[in-house]
Design a protein that fits this description.
By secondary structure, the protein is α+β, with helices and mostly antiparallel strands. It has a three-stranded antiparallel beta sheet with strand order 1-3-2. It starts with a helix and ends in a 5-residue tail after the last helix.
């Protein structure tokens, strides 16, 4: 990932409702979540959430799929991975041994 791709993703996440929506979609996993359910859980109007989800979608952080009358949203885990790797690409000045603890903290339950 290059800076020109990372900046819109960070900008999309730099708003409280979008960040919380994104975190919930990541936590919900690959099955996705209906927009209406997400709006209800976040306590925001559906049309407001729709605007936020469009920003996240344009940044490549979420994808959507129509299912009957609902739209399912999913976190784009490949984009999340690329964004995290962008952040830690130069971790510890190339001294991999010093990066181990910091990187292990990213996913403590996956060890």
């Amino acid at each position: 990932m290059e800076s020109q791709e990372a900046i819109p993703a960070f900008a999309a996440l730099a708003q409280a409702t979008r960040l919380e929506a994104f975190r919930r979609l990541v936590a919900h996993g690959p099955g996705g979540m209906a927009a209406g359910d997400l709006a209800e859980r976040l306590g925001v109007p559906a049309n407001t959430l729709s605007a936020h989800l469009n920003v996240l979608s344009r940044a490549g952080l979420v994808s959507s799929e129509r299912r009957s009358r609902s739209i399912l949203y999913r976190a784009n885990i490949d984009q999340v991975r690329a964004l995290v790797l962008f952040l830690v690409a130069d971790c510890c000045g190339g001294e991999a041994g010093r990066c181990g603890p910091a990187l292990a903290d990213l996913l403590p339950d996956c060890n």
